[in-house]
Design brief:
Strand content: 5-15%
Number of domains: 3
Strand order of the largest sheet: 1-2
Helix content: 40-55%
Structural class: mainly alpha
Number of strands: 10
Protein backbone atom coordinates (compact mmCIF):
# COMPACT_ATOMS: atom_id res chain seq x y z
CA UNK A 1 0.00 0.00 0.00
CA UNK A 2 1.41 3.29 -1.02
CA UNK A 3 1.37 6.47 1.06
CA UNK A 4 1.61 10.05 -0.05
CA UNK A 5 3.95 12.19 2.04
CA UNK A 6 4.49 15.89 1.86
CA UNK A 7 8.04 16.92 1.60
CA UNK A 8 9.59 19.98 3.10
CA UNK A 9 9.52 21.82 -0.21
CA UNK A 10 5.76 21.35 -0.48
CA UNK A 11 5.79 18.58 -3.13
CA UNK A 12 4.15 15.33 -2.50
CA UNK A 13 5.76 12.00 -3.11
CA UNK A 14 4.44 8.60 -2.93
CA UNK A 15 6.18 5.60 -1.59
CA UNK A 16 5.45 2.10 -0.88
CA UNK A 17 4.21 1.36 2.63
CA UNK A 18 6.94 0.38 4.96
CA UNK A 19 9.72 1.91 2.92
CA UNK A 20 11.46 5.09 4.23
CA UNK A 21 14.14 7.05 2.57
CA UNK A 22 17.35 7.89 4.41
CA UNK A 23 16.27 11.55 4.68
CA UNK A 24 12.98 10.57 6.25
CA UNK A 25 14.71 8.41 8.74
CA UNK A 26 16.74 11.39 9.93
CA UNK A 27 13.58 13.41 10.68
CA UNK A 28 12.28 13.20 14.29
CA UNK A 29 9.43 10.80 14.75
CA UNK A 30 6.01 12.05 15.82
CA UNK A 31 4.93 11.22 19.33
CA UNK A 32 2.39 8.50 19.51
CA UNK A 33 -1.19 9.58 20.01
CA UNK A 34 -3.00 8.99 23.29
CA UNK A 35 -4.65 5.67 23.65
CA UNK A 36 -8.32 5.71 23.15
CA UNK A 37 -10.46 6.17 26.29
CA UNK A 38 -7.80 8.11 28.21
CA UNK A 39 -8.65 11.81 28.65
CA UNK A 40 -6.12 14.55 29.27
CA UNK A 41 -5.88 15.67 32.95
CA UNK A 42 -4.67 19.23 33.39
CA UNK A 43 -3.42 20.44 36.89
CA UNK A 44 -6.17 22.07 39.07
CA UNK A 45 -5.96 25.86 39.15
CA UNK A 46 -7.51 26.01 42.70
CA UNK A 47 -4.85 23.75 44.15
CA UNK A 48 -2.13 25.78 42.52
CA UNK A 49 -3.51 29.02 43.94
CA UNK A 50 -3.79 27.56 47.44
CA UNK A 51 -0.19 26.37 47.32
CA UNK A 52 0.97 29.81 46.28
CA UNK A 53 -1.00 31.46 49.14
CA UNK A 54 0.44 29.06 51.71
CA UNK A 55 3.93 29.72 50.39
CA UNK A 56 3.41 33.48 50.69
CA UNK A 57 2.00 33.22 54.21
CA UNK A 58 4.90 31.10 55.38
CA UNK A 59 7.35 33.51 53.84
CA UNK A 60 5.72 36.54 55.49
CA UNK A 61 5.47 34.70 58.81
CA UNK A 62 9.12 33.82 58.68
CA UNK A 63 10.03 37.44 58.01
CA UNK A 64 7.81 38.65 60.87
CA UNK A 65 9.26 36.07 63.23
CA UNK A 66 12.72 37.21 62.36
CA UNK A 67 11.73 40.85 62.92
CA UNK A 68 9.98 40.13 66.22
CA UNK A 69 12.79 37.94 67.42
CA UNK A 70 15.35 40.57 66.50
CA UNK A 71 13.33 43.31 68.18
CA UNK A 72 12.81 41.21 71.29
CA UNK A 73 16.49 40.46 71.43
CA UNK A 74 17.37 44.15 71.20
CA UNK A 75 14.75 45.15 73.80
CA UNK A 76 15.68 42.46 76.30
CA UNK A 77 19.31 43.25 75.77
CA UNK A 78 18.58 46.85 76.72
CA UNK A 79 16.51 45.59 79.66
CA UNK A 80 19.46 43.79 81.13
CA UNK A 81 21.91 46.61 80.49
CA UNK A 82 22.65 49.08 83.30
CA UNK A 83 20.49 52.19 83.18
CA UNK A 84 21.61 55.82 82.88
CA UNK A 85 20.87 56.81 86.49
CA UNK A 86 24.18 57.99 88.01
CA UNK A 87 23.00 57.78 91.63
CA UNK A 88 20.06 56.50 93.67
CA UNK A 89 16.98 58.67 93.19
CA UNK A 90 13.45 58.90 94.56
CA UNK A 91 10.75 58.86 91.90
CA UNK A 92 7.08 59.62 92.55
CA UNK A 93 4.48 57.98 90.29
CA UNK A 94 1.13 59.75 90.72
CA UNK A 95 -2.13 57.85 90.73
CA UNK A 96 -3.96 57.56 87.43
CA UNK A 97 -0.93 57.58 85.12
CA UNK A 98 -0.85 54.92 82.41
CA UNK A 99 2.12 52.97 81.09
CA UNK A 100 3.10 55.51 78.45
CA UNK A 101 2.80 58.46 80.87
CA UNK A 102 4.93 56.59 83.43
CA UNK A 103 7.52 55.79 80.74
CA UNK A 104 7.63 59.45 79.72
CA UNK A 105 8.15 60.48 83.34
CA UNK A 106 10.95 57.97 83.84
CA UNK A 107 12.66 59.08 80.62
CA UNK A 108 12.30 62.74 81.58
CA UNK A 109 13.86 62.11 84.99
CA UNK A 110 16.77 60.17 83.51
CA UNK A 111 15.84 56.78 84.90
CA UNK A 112 15.52 55.09 81.48
CA UNK A 113 16.92 55.91 78.04
CA UNK A 114 13.87 55.36 75.83
CA UNK A 115 10.18 55.34 76.72
CA UNK A 116 9.11 53.13 73.82
CA UNK A 117 11.72 50.53 74.61
CA UNK A 118 10.45 50.57 78.18
CA UNK A 119 6.81 50.10 77.12
CA UNK A 120 7.70 47.46 74.55
CA UNK A 121 9.81 45.60 77.05
CA UNK A 122 7.01 45.74 79.59
CA UNK A 123 4.62 44.14 77.11
CA UNK A 124 7.13 41.59 75.82
CA UNK A 125 8.06 40.61 79.34
CA UNK A 126 4.44 39.68 79.91
CA UNK A 127 4.27 37.55 76.74
CA UNK A 128 7.74 36.12 76.51
CA UNK A 129 9.11 36.48 80.02
CA UNK A 130 9.30 33.77 82.61
CA UNK A 131 6.80 35.44 84.94
CA UNK A 132 3.63 37.45 84.70
CA UNK A 133 4.12 41.20 84.83
CA UNK A 134 1.69 43.14 87.03
CA UNK A 135 0.35 46.62 86.52
CA UNK A 136 2.67 49.53 87.23
CA UNK A 137 1.57 50.98 90.57
CA UNK A 138 1.54 54.54 91.82
CA UNK A 139 3.75 55.45 94.75
CA UNK A 140 7.12 56.79 95.78
CA UNK A 141 10.03 54.56 94.82
CA UNK A 142 13.76 54.46 95.43
CA UNK A 143 15.45 53.57 92.14
CA UNK A 144 18.96 52.26 92.60
CA UNK A 145 22.01 53.53 90.77
CA UNK A 146 22.22 52.27 87.16
CA UNK A 147 19.05 50.21 87.62
CA UNK A 148 18.11 48.35 84.43
CA UNK A 149 14.70 48.68 82.84
CA UNK A 150 13.82 45.22 84.14
CA UNK A 151 14.68 46.33 87.67
CA UNK A 152 12.54 49.46 87.31
CA UNK A 153 9.58 47.47 85.97
CA UNK A 154 9.86 44.90 88.75
CA UNK A 155 10.00 47.66 91.37
CA UNK A 156 6.95 49.47 90.02
CA UNK A 157 4.87 46.36 89.28
CA UNK A 158 5.50 44.81 92.70
CA UNK A 159 4.69 48.08 94.44
CA UNK A 160 8.00 48.27 96.32
CA UNK A 161 7.36 51.88 97.23
CA UNK A 162 8.70 53.90 100.16
CA UNK A 163 6.33 53.52 103.09
CA UNK A 164 5.34 56.30 105.46
CA UNK A 165 3.62 55.74 108.76
CA UNK A 166 0.87 57.45 110.68
CA UNK A 167 0.90 56.65 114.38
CA UNK A 168 -2.55 57.10 115.87
CA UNK A 169 -2.33 56.35 119.60
CA UNK A 170 -4.99 54.85 121.80
CA UNK A 171 -7.45 57.17 123.47
CA UNK A 172 -7.92 59.68 120.65
CA UNK A 173 -11.42 60.60 119.63
CA UNK A 174 -12.50 60.11 116.03
CA UNK A 175 -12.40 63.86 115.50
CA UNK A 176 -8.81 64.01 116.77
CA UNK A 177 -7.82 61.16 114.46
CA UNK A 178 -9.36 62.95 111.49
CA UNK A 179 -7.43 66.12 112.34
CA UNK A 180 -4.16 64.19 112.53
CA UNK A 181 -4.77 62.58 109.16
CA UNK A 182 -5.60 65.97 107.66
CA UNK A 183 -2.26 67.29 108.93
CA UNK A 184 -0.30 64.39 107.37
CA UNK A 185 1.35 65.90 104.23
CA UNK A 186 2.03 62.56 102.54
CA UNK A 187 -1.67 61.65 102.40
CA UNK A 188 -4.12 62.98 99.84
CA UNK A 189 -7.84 63.56 99.43
CA UNK A 190 -10.54 65.09 101.58
CA UNK A 191 -12.22 63.27 104.45
CA UNK A 192 -15.93 63.11 103.84
CA UNK A 193 -17.00 62.90 107.49
CA UNK A 194 -15.97 61.99 111.03
CA UNK A 195 -16.45 58.26 111.73
CA UNK A 196 -18.55 57.20 114.72
CA UNK A 197 -16.79 57.30 118.08
CA UNK A 198 -15.12 54.02 118.97
CA UNK A 199 -15.24 52.61 115.43
CA UNK A 200 -11.51 53.03 114.68
CA UNK A 201 -8.66 50.86 115.93
CA UNK A 202 -5.65 52.94 117.03
CA UNK A 203 -2.35 51.65 115.69
CA UNK A 204 0.57 52.57 113.43
CA UNK A 205 -0.53 52.44 109.80
CA UNK A 206 1.89 52.33 106.87
CA UNK A 207 1.08 53.81 103.48
CA UNK A 208 2.65 54.96 100.23
CA UNK A 209 2.98 58.62 99.37
CA UNK A 210 -0.25 60.00 98.01
CA UNK A 211 -2.48 57.39 99.64
CA UNK A 212 -6.03 58.49 100.42
CA UNK A 213 -6.93 59.67 103.90
CA UNK A 214 -10.25 57.88 103.60
CA UNK A 215 -8.31 54.71 102.81
CA UNK A 216 -6.54 54.93 106.20
CA UNK A 217 -9.88 55.45 107.95
CA UNK A 218 -11.33 52.44 106.13
CA UNK A 219 -8.40 50.32 107.26
CA UNK A 220 -8.83 51.48 110.85
CA UNK A 221 -12.55 50.69 110.71
CA UNK A 222 -11.98 47.23 109.21
CA UNK A 223 -9.26 46.43 111.76
CA UNK A 224 -11.55 47.40 114.63
CA UNK A 225 -14.35 45.18 113.30
CA UNK A 226 -12.02 42.21 112.90
CA UNK A 227 -10.47 42.75 116.34
CA UNK A 228 -13.84 42.99 118.08
CA UNK A 229 -15.14 39.89 116.30
CA UNK A 230 -12.10 37.89 117.41
CA UNK A 231 -11.90 39.16 121.02
CA UNK A 232 -15.62 39.07 121.80
CA UNK A 233 -15.77 35.30 121.42
CA UNK A 234 -12.99 34.91 124.03
CA UNK A 235 -14.52 37.11 126.75
CA UNK A 236 -14.87 35.99 130.35
CA UNK A 237 -18.29 34.55 131.04
CA UNK A 238 -19.02 36.86 133.99
CA UNK A 239 -18.26 40.26 132.43
CA UNK A 240 -21.28 42.57 132.83
CA UNK A 241 -21.18 44.01 129.29
CA UNK A 242 -23.84 42.45 127.11
CA UNK A 243 -22.90 43.59 123.62
CA UNK A 244 -19.95 44.65 121.50
CA UNK A 245 -21.14 48.26 121.65
CA UNK A 246 -21.16 48.18 125.46
CA UNK A 247 -17.70 46.62 125.36
CA UNK A 248 -16.28 49.48 123.28
CA UNK A 249 -17.93 52.07 125.55
CA UNK A 250 -16.56 50.43 128.69
CA UNK A 251 -13.08 49.96 127.18
CA UNK A 252 -12.98 53.61 126.12
CA UNK A 253 -13.41 54.67 129.76
CA UNK A 254 -10.66 52.27 130.86
CA UNK A 255 -8.46 53.65 128.07
CA UNK A 256 -8.84 57.24 129.24
CA UNK A 257 -8.32 56.42 132.92
CA UNK A 258 -4.80 55.01 132.66
CA UNK A 259 -1.96 55.01 130.18
CA UNK A 260 -0.25 51.98 131.72
CA UNK A 261 -1.10 48.65 130.06
CA UNK A 262 -0.26 46.70 133.23
CA UNK A 263 -2.99 48.55 135.15
CA UNK A 264 -5.85 48.39 132.69
CA UNK A 265 -7.25 45.04 133.82
CA UNK A 266 -7.32 46.31 137.41
CA UNK A 267 -9.01 49.58 136.42
CA UNK A 268 -11.56 47.51 134.51
CA UNK A 269 -12.12 45.44 137.65
CA UNK A 270 -12.82 48.60 139.68
CA UNK A 271 -15.52 49.77 137.27
CA UNK A 272 -17.06 46.31 136.96
CA UNK A 273 -17.19 45.98 140.74
CA UNK A 274 -19.01 49.30 140.92
CA UNK A 275 -21.51 48.26 138.28
CA UNK A 276 -22.24 45.04 140.13
CA UNK A 277 -22.88 46.97 143.36
CA UNK A 278 -25.13 49.48 141.58
CA UNK A 279 -22.60 52.29 142.10
CA UNK A 280 -22.01 55.09 139.65
CA UNK A 281 -18.75 54.96 137.74
CA UNK A 282 -17.79 58.60 138.52
CA UNK A 283 -15.20 58.82 135.76
CA UNK A 284 -13.67 62.25 135.08
CA UNK A 285 -13.06 61.58 131.35
CA UNK A 286 -16.80 61.09 130.87
CA UNK A 287 -17.42 64.58 132.29
CA UNK A 288 -14.89 66.03 129.84
CA UNK A 289 -16.43 64.24 126.87
CA UNK A 290 -19.86 65.47 127.88
CA UNK A 291 -18.52 69.05 127.77
CA UNK A 292 -16.24 69.12 124.71
CA UNK A 293 -17.29 66.00 122.82
CA UNK A 294 -14.89 64.83 120.15
CA UNK A 295 -12.46 67.70 120.73
CA UNK A 296 -11.00 65.58 123.51
CA UNK A 297 -9.18 68.11 125.69
CA UNK A 298 -10.93 70.40 128.16
CA UNK A 299 -7.96 72.75 128.57
CA UNK A 300 -8.59 73.34 132.27
CA UNK A 301 -9.36 71.51 135.46
CA UNK A 302 -12.73 69.98 136.23
CA UNK A 303 -14.81 72.15 138.52
CA UNK A 304 -17.60 71.34 140.93
CA UNK A 305 -20.01 72.96 138.49
CA UNK A 306 -18.83 70.54 135.78
CA UNK A 307 -19.48 67.61 138.07
CA UNK A 308 -22.97 68.80 138.90
CA UNK A 309 -23.86 69.56 135.28
CA UNK A 310 -26.11 66.88 133.91
CA UNK A 311 -25.23 65.35 130.55
CA UNK A 312 -25.75 61.91 129.00
CA UNK A 313 -22.03 61.20 129.45
CA UNK A 314 -21.51 62.50 133.01
CA UNK A 315 -21.16 59.29 135.02
CA UNK A 316 -21.40 61.31 138.22
CA UNK A 317 -25.00 62.05 137.24
CA UNK A 318 -26.09 58.92 135.36
CA UNK A 319 -26.28 55.25 136.30
CA UNK A 320 -24.32 52.65 134.38
CA UNK A 321 -22.50 53.32 131.15
CA UNK A 322 -22.79 56.46 129.01
CA UNK A 323 -24.69 56.15 125.72
CA UNK A 324 -21.55 55.59 123.67
CA UNK A 325 -17.73 55.49 123.66
CA UNK A 326 -15.73 58.55 124.72
CA UNK A 327 -12.70 57.69 122.57
CA UNK A 328 -11.28 54.94 120.37
CA UNK A 329 -9.83 52.28 122.69
CA UNK A 330 -6.85 50.15 121.74
CA UNK A 331 -6.48 46.40 121.80
CA UNK A 332 -5.01 46.41 125.32
CA UNK A 333 -8.01 48.23 126.79
CA UNK A 334 -10.40 45.91 124.96
CA UNK A 335 -8.61 42.87 126.37
CA UNK A 336 -8.71 44.38 129.87
CA UNK A 337 -12.45 44.95 129.53
CA UNK A 338 -12.98 41.34 128.46
CA UNK A 339 -10.58 39.85 131.04
CA UNK A 340 -10.62 42.08 134.15
CA UNK A 341 -8.46 41.38 137.19
CA UNK A 342 -10.01 39.32 139.97
CA UNK A 343 -10.02 41.94 142.73
CA UNK A 344 -12.51 43.60 145.09
CA UNK A 345 -11.12 47.10 144.49
CA UNK A 346 -13.61 49.96 144.30
CA UNK A 347 -11.27 52.97 144.21
CA UNK A 348 -8.00 54.12 142.70
CA UNK A 349 -6.00 57.32 142.75
CA UNK A 350 -2.69 58.48 141.26
CA UNK A 351 0.31 57.58 143.38
CA UNK A 352 2.77 60.12 142.01
CA UNK A 353 4.87 57.60 140.08
CA UNK A 354 2.77 57.43 136.94
CA UNK A 355 0.64 54.63 138.33
CA UNK A 356 -2.29 54.34 140.70
CA UNK A 357 -3.00 53.16 144.23
CA UNK A 358 -6.01 50.82 144.40
CA UNK A 359 -8.21 50.38 147.45
CA UNK A 360 -11.10 48.18 148.52
CA UNK A 361 -12.47 50.51 151.18
CA UNK A 362 -13.15 54.21 151.32
CA UNK A 363 -10.86 54.59 154.35
CA UNK A 364 -7.89 53.15 152.45
CA UNK A 365 -8.76 55.27 149.47
CA UNK A 366 -8.90 58.52 151.47
CA UNK A 367 -5.47 57.73 152.88
CA UNK A 368 -4.14 57.23 149.35
CA UNK A 369 -5.72 60.53 148.29
CA UNK A 370 -3.94 62.38 151.10
CA UNK A 371 -0.62 60.91 149.98
CA UNK A 372 -1.35 62.05 146.43
CA UNK A 373 -2.15 65.55 147.65
CA UNK A 374 1.19 65.70 149.44
CA UNK A 375 2.95 64.63 146.23
CA UNK A 376 0.98 67.23 144.28
CA UNK A 377 1.92 69.93 146.77
CA UNK A 378 5.61 69.05 146.47
CA UNK A 379 5.33 69.05 142.69
CA UNK A 380 3.82 72.53 142.72
CA UNK A 381 6.51 73.78 145.10
CA UNK A 382 9.26 72.44 142.85
CA UNK A 383 7.59 73.98 139.82
CA UNK A 384 7.38 77.34 141.57
CA UNK A 385 11.03 77.10 142.63
CA UNK A 386 12.00 76.22 139.08
CA UNK A 387 10.15 79.25 137.72
CA UNK A 388 11.88 81.51 140.23
CA UNK A 389 15.26 80.02 139.34
CA UNK A 390 14.58 80.48 135.66
CA UNK A 391 13.61 84.10 136.25
CA UNK A 392 16.85 84.63 138.20
CA UNK A 393 18.91 83.08 135.43
CA UNK A 394 17.29 85.34 132.86
CA UNK A 395 18.25 88.42 134.88
CA UNK A 396 21.78 87.17 135.58
CA UNK A 397 24.78 87.92 133.26
CA UNK A 398 25.18 85.56 130.32
CA UNK A 399 27.75 82.88 131.20
CA UNK A 400 30.75 82.21 128.98
CA UNK A 401 29.69 78.60 128.47
CA UNK A 402 26.20 77.30 127.90
CA UNK A 403 25.15 73.81 128.89
CA UNK A 404 22.18 72.46 126.96
CA UNK A 405 19.75 70.23 128.75
CA UNK A 406 18.68 66.95 127.17
CA UNK A 407 15.16 65.95 126.22
CA UNK A 408 12.65 64.74 128.77
CA UNK A 409 12.54 60.97 129.31
CA UNK A 410 10.44 59.25 126.67
CA UNK A 411 6.98 58.24 127.81
CA UNK A 412 7.04 60.38 130.99
CA UNK A 413 3.50 61.41 131.93
CA UNK A 414 1.95 63.79 134.44
CA UNK A 415 0.35 62.04 137.38
CA UNK A 416 -3.45 62.13 137.33
CA UNK A 417 -6.17 61.63 139.88
CA UNK A 418 -8.81 59.57 138.17
CA UNK A 419 -12.51 59.94 138.49
CA UNK A 420 -12.81 56.96 140.76
CA UNK A 421 -10.42 58.52 143.25
CA UNK A 422 -13.33 60.66 144.35
CA UNK A 423 -14.84 57.70 146.10
CA UNK A 424 -17.70 55.42 145.25
CA UNK A 425 -21.12 55.04 146.69
CA UNK A 426 -21.10 52.41 149.38
CA UNK A 427 -23.59 53.84 151.79
CA UNK A 428 -25.26 57.04 152.75
CA UNK A 429 -23.94 60.59 152.75
CA UNK A 430 -23.62 63.50 150.38
CA UNK A 431 -22.52 63.35 146.79
CA UNK A 432 -18.76 63.35 146.50
CA UNK A 433 -16.70 65.78 144.51
CA UNK A 434 -13.89 64.25 142.49
CA UNK A 435 -10.22 65.02 142.53
CA UNK A 436 -8.96 66.66 139.36
CA UNK A 437 -5.74 66.02 137.51
CA UNK A 438 -2.64 67.74 138.78
CA UNK A 439 -1.85 69.06 135.34
CA UNK A 440 -5.34 70.50 134.83
CA UNK A 441 -5.58 72.01 138.28
CA UNK A 442 -2.25 73.78 137.94
CA UNK A 443 -3.17 75.04 134.51
CA UNK A 444 -6.47 76.43 135.67
CA UNK A 445 -5.04 78.03 138.77
CA UNK A 446 -7.08 76.01 141.25
CA UNK A 447 -5.37 75.10 144.47
CA UNK A 448 -6.04 71.56 145.60
CA UNK A 449 -8.42 68.78 144.53
CA UNK A 450 -11.87 68.99 146.01
CA UNK A 451 -12.47 66.89 149.15
CA UNK A 452 -13.47 63.26 148.92
CA UNK A 453 -16.76 62.29 150.53
CA UNK A 454 -18.95 59.25 150.41
CA UNK A 455 -21.64 59.56 147.70
CA UNK A 456 -25.18 58.40 147.76
CA UNK A 457 -26.24 55.27 146.02
CA UNK A 458 -28.02 56.01 142.73
Amino acid sequence: MSQIRKRSDGTRTSRTAGARSPAERLEPARAPSRPRGVQAREPSRAIGGFVRVISSVLTVSLILMLLVGGTAFVIFNQFESPGPLPAERTVVIPKGEGRIAIAERLEREGVITNRWTFVGGYLLQGFLGGHKTGELKAGEYEIKEHASMRDVIDTLSEGKSILYKATLPEGLTSEQIVERLKAEPNLSGEISGVPPEGSLLPDTYYFSKGASRNEILDRMRNDMEKTLAALWEQRDADVPVKSVQELVTFASIVEKETGRPDERDRVAAVFYNRLRKGMRLQSDPTIIYGIVGGQGALGRGITKADIETKSPYNTYQINGLPPGPICNPGRSALLAALHPAKTADLYFVADGTGGHAFSETLKEHNSAVQKWRAVEKQTKAKAAAGDASEQTEKSAPIPTKTVKSGPAPKGQKTAKVTSSSAGASDGDGDDSSPSVSAADSSASGSDMPLPVRKPKKP
